[in-house]
Description:
The structure holds two protein chains of two kinds.
Chain A: E1 2-6, H1 12-23, E2 28-31, E3 41-46, E4 51-56, E5 61-63, E6 67-72, H2 86-102, E7 106-108, H3 111-117, H4 120-130, E8 137-140, H5 143-152, E9 156-159, E10 164-167, E11 170-174, E12 177-179, E13 193-197, E14 203-210, E15 213-221, H6 224-228, E16 237-242, H7 246-259, E17 263-270, E18 276-282, H8 288-294, H9 298-307
Parallel strand pairs in A: 1-2, 1-6, 6-7
Antiparallel strand pairs in A: 3-4, 4-5, 8-13, 9-12, 9-13, 10-11, 14-15, 14-17, 15-16, 17-18
Helix pairs in contact in A: 1-9, 4-7
Chain B: E1 6-7, H1 10-13, E2 25-27, E3 39-42, E4 47-52, E5 55-58, H2 77-80
Antiparallel strand pairs in B: 1-2, 3-4, 4-5
Organism (chain B): Actinocatenispora rupis
Protein name (chain B): ATP-grasp target RiPP
InterPro entries (chain A): GRASP_SAV_5884
Amino acid sequence: MTVLVLTGRLDPTADLVVTELHRRRVPVFRCDPADFPGRVDVAAEFRGAGWTGWLRTPHHTVDLGAVRSAYFRRPGPIAVDTGPAPEWATAEARGGFGGLLQAVPYWLNHPGRMTHAEYKPVQLAAAARAGLDTPRTLVTSDPDAARRFVAELPRVVYKAFSSTVRSDDGRRFIYTSLVTPADIDDGVRHTAHLFQEWIDKEYEIRLTVVGDRFFAARLTGRSHAARIDWRADYDAIEYAVADVPADVRRAVTALLAGLDLRFAAMDFAVRPDGRWVFLDLNPNGQWGWIEHETGLPIKAAITDALTTPPR
Amino acid sequence: MDSTAVAEPEKYTAHRDAPFGLRFAQRPTSSIDLDLDLVSYDEEAQLAVARDGDRWVPLIDHRMSVTLQTSGETPREDEIYDKSST
Lengths: 311, 86
């Protein structure tokens, strides 16, 4: 069997898995669908019993019938930007090449399921249904609604749906930030905004789940910025391995089954009384740095999942 | 290294139609500007490599992998600040 890895060339997290697959002598075919056509090409035929054919780059060719699993990391979008009708050519590429990729039997994770699960309103509702504690949350483009919500609760944070913004001189990041009623202004009208109850916490948990294997890392912020949003100050984070309470494990299992995810990176705030509160789920989140900081064997678990998919 | 992000609220809020959330846009001081001449892709091994003196080593074994600013198409904050290896 061959493992298909879909990602860009500069993805050190995917490199970790490819290296582990090499070590286990498992054939790998890595490509970026954004390179189709030209640097990635395909020919596949259907004769009533599945697709047969090949997928190739200038240096590698894989028999489609040998591909049993696919790791969807951070590929670029399929797009054709040449010729007289690039939009039509792109649609054809997505329908044909993208359609053949979709026919791979096992995914970690299936891109369609990830797209669905990335929506914060979807994941919050699913988490609550699964039995997890969740914070009160408002999504709005109305400044008055925002002001009322912020005034009703002791402390509230603003969270962006997308944490990066492109600029003419580089990218900026939008971290979770505390807000007061006086902060709210008409700028809320210009797009959707998410305001959320601030959870008083002792520390946060980054829970990485691969299949039925749970890897919990305790992240304790040692600066003001890291306590609000640990992504704002990585150097001020203390890491430790944590245990997952049985009720949280059951609820997360139900949540991921409901979202049809085989991998997730999830964030929890842990209250002073020990209760875990679900904050966020990333169906394609980073995990390499957690393994580096804690020694949790996430790479091995991902490689196991890709090499022993259920039949 | 001080990795605390640097706030730049004025960058966007001067615009009349700036969404509220943009006032929190920040530039992280710990990310690195990636010199693309220092990284490459080994087509045979299907792995990224980085220049280390006069030789190329797997990117995951390079110090740059600790704090890597990627050139991905749709980067997220956690993708840019990659601490997958040292």
